[in-house]
Write a structure and sequence with these properties.
Nucleotidyltransferase, domain 5; 6 helices; 229 residues; alpha/beta
Length: 229
């Protein structure tokens, strides 16, 4: 499959493992999104080599709630305060592995989009704007799991001004099937353990790109979709 630590060549690749279970129209699909690296394109000024977006997809709100509860209980075993955040870059290797092992039995799938910014042929937005790249890579991740009937609730780490949020909603509305997304919410990751899960996975993916696959190997079975440019 080439020399990529995860998959494929420098061209856009798509990898699928397994299939989604039947989703009832009564269920609410919840997608929690976070990133690793940065979307900046000024490599000579410190921008990261890779930008990773992870969409953690829960087919039902029950699956999302059960996963959140498991994470909260794990935090209690660590005797952390209520809003102590699981964040890959700030967490010890031991706790990273324990966290990933803890969530491995939960019911979710992962859609991952990776941009190798050192690739001169990388497909980036024509205006080479960081926010545009951010939105484009999110779109690549979530478009793999959405259709005209999903009506998903999307949770994204970050604040963003009202104008930015409107632009994002318009961007997704123009590029996704009608009714693919019901709601987009921007959340402080400190208050949302599902976004923290996405962060921990994104960090694991990013680390694997530089050769350390120990973390990703724990939860790799959950990756149903992977695109890499």
């Amino acid at each position: 499959m080439g020399s990529s630590p995860i998959s494929g060549t420098n061209k856009m690749t798509s990898k699928k493992r397994g299939h989604f279970l039947f989703k009832s129209k009564l269920d609410i699909m919840i997608i929690a999104i976070d990133d690793s690296g940065d979307p900046g394109l000024k490599m000579d000024k410190g921008s990261s080599s890779y930008f990773v977006i992870v969409a953690a997809v829960f087919l039902t709100d029950h699956d999302a709630e059960a996963t959140a509860l498991k994470i909260e209980r794990f935090r209690q075993t660590l005797k952390w305060r209520e809003h102590h955040e699981f964040k890959f870059r700030k967490t010890s290797p031991e706790i990273r592995k324990a966290f990933l092992s803890e969530i491995n039995s939960c019911n979710f799938v992962l859609s991952v989009a990776v941009v190798d910014k050192t690739n001169t042929n990388v497909d980036t937005p024509s205006n080479r704007d960081a926010s545009s790249l951010y939105n484009t890579v999110i779109l690549r991740a979530i478009s793999q799991v959405l259709d005209e009937s999903t009506n998903a609730r999307v949770l994204i780490d970050g604040e963003g001004g009202s104008s930015y949020k409107r632009n994002v909603k318009t961007f997704f509305r123009q590029n996704l099937p009608k009714n693919a997304i019901k709601q987009i919410r921007y959340r402080d990751s400190k208050n949302d353990v599902l976004i923290q899960l996405a962060d921990m996975v994104a960090g694991s993916v990013n680390r694997s790109l530089t050769g350390d696959k120990e973390y990703l190997s724990i939860i790799k079975r959950h990756i149903n979709f992977l695109t890499k440019t």
